[in-house]
Design goal:
alpha+beta, 5-stranded mixed β-sheet, two-stranded antiparallel sheet, 7 strands, rod-shaped
Length: 149
C-alpha cells in the first residue's frame, strides 16, 4: 500500500464549500453590527454637538438668536472636533435649539421646523429629511440653517 500524503481535491473542495456557507450566514450579521456601531457613534456625536452649542450659548451670555456651524465661511463655530461631520445649529434668544442639521458620510439628522428640538429626538436618519449630502448644508442669513437641493 502506498502512503497517502496531503488531501484529495474532493476533500479540499468540501472544506471550501463549508467555509463559503459559513461566510454567507455570518456576513449579514457582521454588517448589521458594523452599521449599528456607526449609527451609535453618529448619534453620540450629534448629541454632543447639541449640548456644546447650548453650553456655548449660555457661557457667552448671548441674548439674541445664534447660529453655530462648521460650514466654511461661517463666523461662529463651536470649539469641538466634529470628526467628519458637518453641522449647523440655530438657537433662539432663550438658548433653545430650533434648527439643527448634522451629517457625515453615512448618517444625517435634519430638523428645520422652528419649534424647540429635544435632545432625545436627535438620532441618525431621523427628522424631516433623512439623507443629506455634506455639501448641501448651508446657512441662510435670514432663516438660519438650510439644506440645498
Amino acid at each position: 500500500m502506498k502512503n497517502k500524503k496531503g488531501f484529495t481535491l474532493v476533500e479540499l473542495l468540501a472544506v471550501i464549500a463549508i467555509l463559503a456557507i459559513l461566510v454567507i450566514i455570518a456576513l449579514p450579521n457582521v454588517m448589521k453590527m458594523y452599521n449599528d456601531a456607526r449609527q451609535g457613534t453618529f448619534d453620540s456625536e450629534a448629541k454632543s454637538i447639541y449640548k456644546i452649542a447650548q453650553q456655548t450659548f449660555l457661557s457667552r451670555m448671548e441674548t439674541t438668536e445664534k447660529i453655530y456651524s462648521n460650514i466654511s465661511g461661517s463666523s461662529d463655530s463651536l470649539d469641538i472636533q466634529a470628526g467628519n461631520s458637518t453641522y449647523c445649529i440655530k438657537l433662539n434668544s432663550s438658548g433653545k435649539v430650533v434648527q439643527y442639521v448634522v451629517t457625515n458620510s453615512t448618517n444625517s439628522y435634519q430638523e428645520l421646523g422652528g419649534s424647540e428640538i429635544k435632545i432625545e429626538n436627535v438620532k441618525a436618519n431621523n427628522g424631516s429629511n433623512a439623507a443629506i449630502a455634506k455639501d448641501k448644508v448651508a446657512i441662510d442669513t435670514t432663516t438660519g440653517c438650510k439644506v440645498n437641493n
